[in-house]
Amino acid sequence: MNPSSNSRTRCRGLSIGLGFLHTRVALNNYTMIYLLFTVLFAEMMIILLLLFKTPLREPLVVGLDGFKQGKAQLAVTSVCATVFVVMMYNIYTVVEIRSCSADAVDSPNRVILAFRILEASLMGVSLFLLVMIECLHQFIKPVVILTETITASRKQNQACEDTNRKNAHLAKSIKEEISRLKTGITKLELECDKREKDVQSRKANSSTLKSQLVGLHVEYDHLLTENKDLKDQLHDMNERLSHSTSKKMSFFSWDQWGL
Predict the structure, then answer these.
(1) By C-alpha distance, which of 39, 138, 19 is closest to 87?
(2) Which of 43, 120, 229, 242 could form a disulfide with 129 if both were Cys (CB 3.0 to 4.6 A apart)?
(3) Among 91, 83, 63, 86, CA closest to 128
(4) Which residues cross the membrane (predicted)?
(5) By C-alpha distance, which of 6, 230, 227, 35 is closest to 123?
(6) How far is CA 210 from CA 52, 199, 215, in A?
């Protein structure tokens, strides 16, 4: 048998088989294409959120980190492997249909061929975008961690600067208080010196008064001695006077003269 006739027979069989499955495959293809487009738009949105610095980037990175842990990573790997197998099957189907002659491929099969090509393209693009998301996540994760570290460091530096400002204000207040206390101490020292001088002058006056008091005591003792001497002399004089008076009285008495 001629090889070209075998090829035509196989293409006709493939065309007949595809014709029988045209109705069911068309419905499934529409659903799959809508799903693939939804996945593509979601992946594009994730890539845009990862590329640009938005408030949603950090929560998205944290969510991807959590999504990669546990059974979710195994499920994503299984889905990706399934999509890859389906994509390779669609590519094989497209190659088989392309290998047939143009006469053997009718209009319905051309529609199915277009759907297969579109499905394979969307699956390939979705897998490529998924790989891009993985790479972007691996590159952006350290950036996000570094950004968080820098933000925390800035906040800590701001807190330190605020503390330094407060400490500087407190130090200034303490310096002012110290200068005020020094002024008060200087005034107290001057007052203390003045009072010390007053005390020294009073001590000098007290020494002078003590010396005067000693002199007065000496003079008082001398006066007492003189007073005692005068009293003794007066007493002696009184005794003498009384003795002479008694003699005179006895001389002039009547008894003595016999009268």
Answers:
(1) 39
(2) 43
(3) 83
(4) 32-52, 72-92, 113-133
(5) 35
(6) 102, 16, 9
Q: How far apart are CA 137 and CA 142, in angstroms?
A: 9
Residue by residue, pLDDT tens for the chain (259 residues) are 444 445 444 544 444 444 444 444 544 566 777 888 888 888 888 888 888 877 887 787 777 777 777 677 777 788 888 888 888 887 887 787 777 655 545 566 677 777 778 888 888 888 888 888 888 888 887 877 888 888 888 888 888 888 888 888 888 888 888 988 888 888 888 888 888 888 888 888 888 888 888 888 888 888 888 888 888 888 888 777 777 766 656 555 545 545 4
Write down the residue that tokens 């009072």 correspond to: 195
Q: For the chain, percent helix, then strand, then coil, each to nearest 5?
A: 90, 0, 10
Count, residues in the chain:
259
Consecutive H or E run containing 103: none
Residue 136: is it exposed, middle or buried by C-beta count within 10 angstroms (0-12/13-18/19+)? middle
Q: Which of 139, 117, 112, 122 is nearest to 18 (CA)?
A: 112
Instruction: Give CA angle at 237 (234, 243), nearest 5°.
Output: 140
